[in-house]
Amino acid sequence: MNNKNLLVVGASSEIGSAIVRQAEQNNYQVIGTQRSGSMPGLFMDVTSDESVKSAIQQALADFGRIDAVIYAPALSSDGLIHALDDNAWSNAFDVNLFGAVRVARHLIPHFIKARQGVFQFVSSTAAVRGATGAAPYACSKAALNALAVNIAHDYGRFNIRAYTVMPGYVDGGMLADLPVEKKTLLAREPSLKRLATPDNVAHFCIATLDSPYLTGTALTLDGGLSG
Questions:
Q1: Rounded to whole angstroms, how far apart are CA atoms 36 and 166?
Q2: Spatial CA neighbour of 1 closest among 104, 111, 118, 151
Q3: Who is most buried in 13, 24, 43, 117, counting CB within 10 A?
Q4: 53: number of CA atoms within 13 Å, CB side?
Q5: Does the residue 227 lie in any domain?
Q6: The model's pTM
Q7: CA-wise closest residue to 102 among 121, 83, 117
Q8: CATH number of the domain that 195 lies in?
Q9: Is residue 226, in this structure, part of any structural domain at all?
Q10: Does residue 204 lie in a domain region?
Q11: Which domain covers residue 196, as residue numbers?
């Protein structure tokens, strides 16, 4: 997919920024979206359907076409299940799942017309192993995996592919503010005995884009966490 156009949703996050850098190093033309109007990039609020629609229209106007999209936004509502209210659940799902649905809804017609396109959603191993004190996050990421499978099934005949990448523990993003002692304990769990970096995740995300038979699956990048 070298020299093709890549939309990175959530480019201002640590993982999103790393994905943009890695993509540009591999000759992708990248347009990144961000939710803060004070930062460079295309504004997109994934919780607003109108904002998603407007941003994608602008991206298409600027690019002429979009060949692939990587969806990287993530939100965690922390707390035990009995203590979390409906807002905690809806907020996590609105960003982690429904935002991805909005992006897919407005890009699928373009991909159908082009008879090609790739959806890559950044999920988490929490989708399959759970996450203590973060059930909304884990459940929404599991639903994101299911979304990718359904896009793959429904639109494969148009050469549209969809899959998720599931990182394990990453030294950045939502774990960035953890105390060093806690990070040290987490680093003991994977077989590689270290946390992933945002650049590790970004390298994997870009490396898998150019795989023409890859679709309808969830790829694990956890350093042997499940081993």
A1: 26
A2: 118
A3: 117
A4: 4
A5: no
A6: 0.94
A7: 121
A8: 3.40.50.720
A9: no
A10: yes
A11: 5-221
48-78 pLDDT tens trace = 999 999 999 999 999 999 999 999 999 998 8
Domain-located, residue 85: yes
The answer to whether 108 and 158 have CB atoms below 8 angstroms apart is no
What confidence tens digit (pLDDT) does each residue in 174-220 have? 777 778 888 888 889 889 999 999 999 999 999 999 999 999 999 99
Take residue 160 and report the two structure tokens written for it. Answer: 């549209």
Computed on alpha carbons and rounded to an integer, the radius of gyration of the chain in Å comes to 17
Number of structural domains found in the chain: 1
